[in-house]
TrEMBL record:
Functional description taken from the UniProt entry: Involved in both the arginine and lysine biosynthetic pathways. Phosphorylates the LysW-bound precursors glutamate (for arginine biosynthesis), respectively alpha-aminoadipate (for lysine biosynthesis).
Pathway: Amino-acid biosynthesis; L-arginine biosynthesis; Amino-acid biosynthesis; L-lysine biosynthesis via AAA pathway; L-lysine from L-alpha-aminoadipate (Thermus route): step 2/5
A GO MF term: ATP binding
This protein's encoding gene: lysZ
InterPro entries given in the database record: AceGlu_kinase-like_sf, AcgluKinase_fam, Asp/Glu/Uridylate_kinase, LysZ
Superkingdom as given in the UniProt entry: Archaea
Region listing for Disordered, in residue ranges: 264-284
Family per record: Belongs to the acetylglutamate kinase family. LysZ subfamily.
EC annotation from Swiss-Prot or TrEMBL: 2.7.2.17, 2.7.2.19
Protein name (Swiss-Prot/TrEMBL): Putative [LysW]-aminoadipate/[LysW]-glutamate kinase
Organism, as annotated: Halosimplex aquaticum
Entry keywords, A to Z: Amino-acid biosynthesis, Arginine biosynthesis, ATP-binding, Cytoplasm, Kinase, Lysine biosynthesis, Nucleotide-binding, Transferase
Record domain Aspartate/glutamate/uridylate kinase: where: 1-251
Gene3D superfamilies (UniProt xref): Acetylglutamate kinase-like (3.40.1160.10)
Residues annotated to bind substrate: 65, 171
Amino acid sequence: MTTVVKIGGARAVDPAGALADVASLREDGEDVAVVHGGSTAVDETLERLGIEPEYVETPSGVVGRFTDEETMEVFEMVFGHLNTQLVAGLQSQGVDAVGLSGVDGKLLYGPRKSAVRVMEDGKRKIRRGDHSGTIKRVNADLLETLFDDGYTPVASPPMAGKDDDEVVPVNTDADRSAAHIAGGLEATLVLLTDVEGIYADPDDPSTLIESVETPAEWADLEDAAEGFMERKVMAVEEALDGGADEVVVADANAEDPILSALSGGGTHVHASALSDTADTEETQ
């Protein structure tokens, strides 16, 4: 069994429990790839440098970071630091971890988006100078080689962006990076965050959606997702479409967060949830 674990970058997320669980899974002989975020740390560093973080809204309503050249430099610096800290934390647990960015070995590769469509004052506009990309290919062979040699990869953005004839580091979403990696490895994906999972009522933790197995349940899940959870639901869909067998959205701060997620905690979304209605009826 292969598990991909995405550790969130929110300030409220403590990675200690997740790192201990990775060590436990490795002791049991399971392959684990860790992917991490860090947007909060990027924003804090930008503010210390006197740079205002900028977020834009796409015409479809998704809010994301606008990454200009200066922000990209800070992004690379911060993510490199966070990656090293997680690698050291795993090594302290006895796990032989190796840090990678999406640029290394073209682990995450696709075209750079130098211009993005945004909504400003109710109007659609084109913003140029962005340093972001769309993942089109995952170098799963690189990760498999590390697994075979007994290593645990710890990966993060930036990705390798194709810009004309050059490859340049560009920003990409960490949840969706984890989704593409899980799809490429045909693994189970655990998305750890600062809430218990996805709630039917985003303001009421007692409405946790525990399992999603049918297209109707998937539609309800999409309707329930708001704010930052919308991006996680996009990542869930990309992981399952890419070949992952299951995605779990769970609490990073729970006791034994990964082990409890794999044992039934959080919100479990199965590949069958994305089957179209015709296929579902034929199998009944």
